[in-house]
Design a protein that fits this description.
The protein is of the alpha/beta class and 589 residues long. The protein is built from 22 helices and ten strands.
Length: 589
């Protein structure tokens, strides 16, 4: 019940609704007992009339009318409480989804580096579905039945204490057996959830990388992986089902034994005249009413355990420490003449060796700087630190003289535009993808940004122009077109700092030239940081920082670095030599 109590605890805005529903259910449960109690007096009046003791017809009619009226009132209260229960479930789903999404948006980048997106979404869905299902059951079914049972036992005790005792005895027996059964179910449910999370995550990955799967003809392997996991899920479910039905048999057996005892007491008492026929009808009706929740007891506790295990990861994510506060109210301004400085910055990821060691450099206003080095030496890590995706292990970073530690994530990122190596686009329209750089931008501003990015010529030829949908990750556009959409988005953001993360590395020569022209428009009057392996794209930068094994081992302008021995000149020679061999092969050099 720990996670369920957490739900009640964090859902403070809904407490008033929970209290109101509880009150309505309490009244409804009490009204439900009116009809059985009046039935006793109706039966006694009828028996009195039959046996010649002159029953009261007017009294009988009044009892029937009251019973009918109580039934109508009970239906009204039930309908209202059920409707409010559904409303509560919907509001709770909204509240918990917003709570989860808010937490995910505020988590550090390191969390997403180690998790699969499909797994995160599955944990959200499972947590919400199981919690909402449990709440619906409680408000519309479980709580009313239990309150009725409690009231029923009190009424039974008024007529026969022994029968009330045996009826009450059913509850601890049922609850003990159901608790053990549900606990065993819940343990296996955690195993199922882990397998299901991996399976759903894998399916999401396969769908997003379907070209890779098909190009390597690995459909069979992927199918077998998922199928094998589904078999494991069914095996665990079979074990759960077996244990459930064994305990269910013992539960039902205990019910039959106590039912026999109650019947013997009731029938014997009526037979010897210690109980009227009305009393007998009332007690049998009340016993039937009291045991109704018992039939659902296993379902109830299984529901609770499913919600407990289903919401386990949900609450684990909610309890993770947030590293960012994106909702903070602050005045976001674009800096004029920004500078970026690293002072003896070192950094390491969790469970890794040191990635950067004592890195120091200064990038001046409107300076264009390239980060060069072999793969895996720390270039992307420097960019991640500049974007404040991570905090340095030691050392300081400053933006125009202000320490990063004193600046918010929003303030820093508001001053930086980024063009990714990968085509980071949403599956929505071109307009929405470009306007993502400035959500307040007009349609005219978006078109102007597309023009500056050399993208308007192809966009206006699309069937719906800027309202054309690009598909998941821009699948309906070519590589060059996708990159130019990214450039337009960065132009629209109009930040004083620009980061180009291998923005042309995956393009052919023609597309690279088109994107490069667009980038030249974007780079004007900005501080620019470029990560590039194609040296043809960085020949006009002001400075190159050469990085090796997490350290800056050299720096200078492209011409001076090309003339001196070192990593930069070696990498440059490899590229030139490769191009020369290609030209010689086709006899055009």
């Amino acid at each position: 019940m720990r996670n369920i109590l957490k739900i009640i605890q964090i859902a403070k805005p809904l407490h008033w609704l929970i209290i109101l529903i509880g009150f309505l259910i309490l009244v409804q449960s009490a009204i439900e007992l009116v009809a059985p109690i009046l039935t006793k007096y109706i039966v006694d009046d009828i028996v009195a009339e039959i046996s010649g003791k002159h029953g009261n017809a007017e009294h009988l009619a009044l009892l029937v009318a009251i019973s009918f009226g109580a039934g109508i009132v009970g239906i009204i209260f039930a309908s209202i409480s059920n409707r409010l229960g559904d409303h509560l479930a919907g509001e709770l789903r909204k509240f918990l989804t917003e709570k989860f999404y808010d937490k995910v948006l505020a988590l550090p980048q390191s969390y997403f580096d180690s998790e699969i997106s499909g797994k995160i979404v599955n944990q959200l869905n499972r947590g919400i579905v199981t919690i909402q299902g449990l709440l619906n059951s409680w408000t519309n079914f479980i709580l009313p039945l239990f309150l009725q049972s409690i009231f029923t036992i009190f009424v039974m005790a008024r007529f026969n204490a022994a029968i009330a005792f045996f009826t009450f005895l059913l509850f601890p027996i049922y609850m003990a057996l159901s608790y053990v059964s549900a606990k065993k179910w819940g343990v296996r449910e955690v195993e199922k959830n882990a397998i299901e999370d991996y399976t759903r995550g894998r399916i999401t990955e396969v769908i997003s990388n379907i070209k890779l799967v098909k190009s390597f003809s690995n459909e069979t392997g992927e199918y077998k992986t998922v199928s094998s996991n589904l078999v494991k899920l069914n095996q665990i479910y079979a074990q759960q089902s077996k244990a459930f039905h064994i305990y269910d048999f013992v539960r039902n057996l205990s019910l039959q034994v106590i039912l026999l005892i109650v019947n013997v007491i009731v029938f014997y008492s009526a037979f010897v005249g210690k109980m009227t026929i009305g009393d007998m009808v009332l007690i049998l009706t009340l016993f039937t009413q009291a045991r109704r929740p018992l039939f659902a007891m296993s379902f109830i506790l299984s529901n609770i355990q499913t919600a407990e295990s289903g919401s386990k990861e949900f609450f684990e994510i909610l309890e993770l420490p947030s590293s960012e506060n994106y909702t903070r109210s602050e005045k976001l301004v674009k800096l004029k003449d920004p500078t970026i400085e690293f002072r003896k910055v070192s950094f390491k990821y969790e469970k890794s060796e040191m990635v950067l060691q004592d890195v120091s450099f200064l990038i001046k206003n409107r300076e264009k700087v390239a980060l060069v080095g072999h793969s895996g030496v720390g270039k992307s890590t420097i960019v991640n630190l500049i974007l404040k995706f991570y905090e340095p292990t030691s050392g300081d970073i400053s933006l125009k003289g202000q320490r990063y530690k004193n600046l918010t994530h929003n303030f820093i990122r508001n001053n930086i535009a980024l063009v990714f190596q990968e085509n980071e686009l949403f599956s929505s329209t071109i307009y929405e993808n470009v306007a993502y750089g400035n959500l307040k931008a007009t349609k005219e501003a978006v078109i102007e940004a597309l023009r500056k990015a050399n993208a308007w010529d192809f966009v206006k030829k699309l069937p719906k122009g800027i309202e054309s949908e690009v598909g998941e990750r821009g699948v309906r556009l070519s590589g060059g077109q996708k990159q130019r959409i990214q450039v337009a988005r960065a132009i629209l953001k109009d930040s004083p700092i620009l980061i180009l993360d291998e923005a042309t590395s995956s393009l052919d020569a023609k597309s690279e030239r088109e994107v490069q022209n667009a980038l030249e428009n974007l780079m004007k009057n900005r501080l620019v940081i470029i990560i590039a392996h194609r040296f043809s794209t960085i020949q006009n930068v002001d400075k190159i920082l050469v990085i090796d094994q997490g350290k800056i081992v050299d720096s200078g302008d492209p011409r001076s670095l090309a003339k001196k021995s070192g990593i930069y000149s070696d990498l440059l020679k490899y590229q030139i030599e490769g191009n020369r061999k290609l030209l010689q092969k086709f006899e055009i050099y």
